Amino acid sequence: MEELDCEPAVTWIPGVNSKKKQMCFDWGPGEMLLCETSFNKTDKSEKVPSCPFIYIIRKDVDVYSQILRKLFNESHGIFVGLQRLEEELSGKSRKAQLVRVSKNYRSVIRACMEEMHQVAIAAKDPASGRQFSSQVSILSAMELIWNLCEILFIEVAPAGPLLLHLLDWVRLHVCEVDSLSADVLGSDHPSKHESFWNLVTVLVLQGRLDEARQMLSKEADASPSSAGMCRVLGDLMRTMPILSPGNTQTLTELELKWQHWREECERHLQDNTFAANPHLESLCKIMLGDEATLLEQKELMSNWYHFLVTRLLYSNPTVKPTDLHLYAQSSLDMFLGGESSPEPLDNILMAAFEFDIHQVIKECSIALSNWWFVAHLTDLLDHCRLLQSHNLYFGSNMREFLLLEYASGLFAHHSLWQLGVDYFDYCPELGRVSLELHIERIPLNTEQKALKVLRICEQRQMTEQVGSICKILAMKAVRNNRLGSALSWSIRAKDAAFATLVSDRFLRDYCERGCFSDLDLIDNLGPAMMLSDRLTFLGKYREFHRLYGEKRFGDAASLLLSLMTSQIAPRSFWMTLLTDALPLLEQKQVIFSAEQTYELMRCLEDLASRRPECGEPDAQRLQDDDIETTKVEMLRLALARNLARAIIREGSLEGS
Amino acid sequence: MLRREWHRKGLLQQTPFFHRPLKERHTLKTCESQTACEDSNTGGWKCSQENCVSLWSIGEFGNLDSDGGFEGDHQLLCDIRHHGDVMDLQFFDQERIVAASSTGCVTVFLHHPNNQTLSVSQQWPTAHYHTGPGSPSYSSAPCTGIVCDNPEIVTVGEDGRINLFRVDHKEAVRTIDNADSSTLHAVTFLRTPEIVTVNSIGQLKIWDFRQQGSEPCQILSLTGDRVPLHCVDRHPDQQHVVATGGQDGMLSIWDVRQGTMPVSLLKAHEAEMWEVHFHPSNPDHLFTCSEDGSLWHWDASTNAPEKSSLFHQGGRSTFLSHSSNQASVHLSLVSSWLSTDPAKDRIEITSLLPSRTLSVNSLDVLGPCLVCGTDAESIYVTRQLFS
């Protein structure tokens, strides 16, 4: 057992009196039921009225957020696409595809973030506004981390392009500059705007030198005295060698050019070219990567990773991935300057710069309130073949563990559970078992939902679950007096025992009411009739009635007899069958042959002789017995008369 | 071509088109003004607390940009809470919407265009219910299907009951208890006052409200294995032609005037077919959607081959021939759906959704517009069906 990385968080449930210590709880899929018990251990005589509430504690509250639901739904599509991609991917296109997938994930996070932002602005009460805003910042942090992981682990950018990616990363996430820029440019005299120099500095800090140059030219136009200096600095900005994607120059060439450029910058600084204008001098120092000057602009950079990237841009543009963590650590230390301690986000980013994937995932799992992020990121990194060697001391590997956790959370939701199915499908080791356990616990409030669940089970050959779901539905239908439905469900489940039970109900109803219900089903059973003997009997018995109704007495009679002789009819039903034979026996023409009549007589005697000896006779019992005896007598009489007629008829037919 | 119009997620900068309530079902309607602006109406599918019926506007025709794409002109007009899952949803008239609930309740919502709100204008709380030994008085049964024909509303449910309501009457005009021993899945008008219902044991029943009693006037059924039927639609011009979709994804075309078996059985989807619709003004075209996540366009108008070539750009394009089990000869006005000459008649099928993952639960079509809702909680809209 590993040690705990942090103390588990305590959740306070309002309304529960924890001092009384009478809690009981039960785990459900993804949630916990908690209630106060009515047991009072001190004295039983005085019943303190206990709290009448049951509390439901949900682990993944984020699943219930309306906006985040879109995140779950959209990312599900991307996830499934990625798993399918796996089969056809190889070699070079593989990386490009994985990067594309990663970008898709990020675009979904971004879209959710934007929508959440809109909602937060529109929120009427400040409390919910704050709540949405905090969600926005969480989503933004997720995207920040994901983007960095994409650059470092998926893109695996080499020295050179690495810095370009990091610059894009910072530009994307520190985006206040755009509104500032619009603000300044929108004013009448941009260069007189109070934030003008801030803007220019931020542009230089982010390496957006073209824009910075345009700004400087505005300053040059406005104040002719500094025009010369602005031109010199603008030229420096223009000539700064950068790696452009289409360029074929080697890193060494670039480094050489860069050194020359840097020396030129230094020369201007030593010559005090910009001494007259402290703003321009500071800009030049920034372009030389002067750490002290950079740290003066802390406010404008707002965070240490911006500082890191700016520092690298102007001091080591061809930084190797392996050296990154050294710069990162020192940048963090310098930026915080011992004044504050790093926050969870800082630790996560630092772990990423150290290329410690497991640490990134671990820290994210602790810091974030849901499993969405770690599950999807881990899965993607696993597809990059970065996690193969890591096995947990429980369950299977980390990817699967996280996916299972995430999918279980989804399954607790009344609507998102369908997404969970696909996640379970792509967990080779424990996914199937988990799915089996979860799918049986989905509340089936409509048949449509039940059909969806059944389809999922049938596609995966989960026969046991199919059976149990059909049984639940059949049971429900019986309880609602919907025998036809119940029978359909038990036929679908091929559940012979239940079909027998339902058939018995049908027969009992028939005995009570004297007519069949649900003829549309019973008349159309077809081969399904063979599912259980009782069902066969039900179908055949109904057929007998139909034949009788159509006045096909001969067929009806032989069917009736065969039902008894072949032992399909339950013995308890024989008396009814024999009573049904009465009108046939009393018909004008002879229907039962002598042989058939003998058979009927045998059945009747068989039944009469096996009548159970009753214990205490009561009035009701006696009356019943009386009716029964009369019936038997009538039958005997009818049989005897029919036998006589049959013998005469058969004899005369043969004789003639 | 077709695919591009699907309104959906893009890369980084594009905001995906998402939809709030779950598992939409919807219908389309034309607005009062003749500018042919459309509203699509959508509703939630799932559990109690969060479902709502929402009214969306998907913008006007004809203002597409050069790319054929649309951005941002679909808009949520209003929504209202709905108790229980929305099992079916239909426009009653220009401003009224009828919703079927899994609680057995049938509600008529009224849309107020002035202040863009929805309100309940009529409600039958216990339209569908079970009576059983387990329940003291009654327990609710989901209402599975509705069909409207002003001023009448017919509803069917899992309790096998058929209700005929009039929108201004508090009580049901006519109720047929135990109309079916199994679950009734869908209903449609054949010709007033006759309706067709389909049930979970593969039967198609025709009912005439002029007749008393609880017996259908005709039962048609699939052969043998009682595959449940989930949806039904009637040909808009030829009232004897009916299409149904079943649990096995088969599309059946029936001629209710003759025979008790379908005229043709067409192998279609791989799982439950949830909805089938003839195009209201162009009935040679048929649309089906399924649990397997596909949405298909069936085109039986291929007698003019040069016209059909327009549809070739779509993804899947297959030719199927009718498997006919009945030799019927109609010399005059033969519907393209009933003709049985396998050599001559072909149906061209185009798949309208690019990737198949989760179930497409519902669809509706009007003019060049088609709307469908999926289990991935999104709505797809295309406005160029025939281009």
TrEMBL record, chain B:
Claim: Repeat is one of the keywords in the record: yes
WD repeat extents: 222-264, 266-308
Predominant place of localization: nucleus
InterPro entries noted in UniProt: WD40/YVTN_repeat-like_dom_sf, WD40_repeat_CS, WD40_repeat_dom_sf, WD40_rpt
Gene3D superfamilies: YVTN repeat-like/Quinoprotein amine dehydrogenase
Location in or out of the cell: Nucleus
SUPFAM superfamilies on file: WD40 repeat-like
A Pfam family of this chain: WD40
Origin: domain of life: Eukaryota
Keywords assigned: Nucleus, Repeat, WD repeat
Record's protein name: Nucleoporin 43
Organism: Rattus norvegicus (Rat)
Record lineage: Eukaryota, Metazoa, Chordata, Craniata, Vertebrata
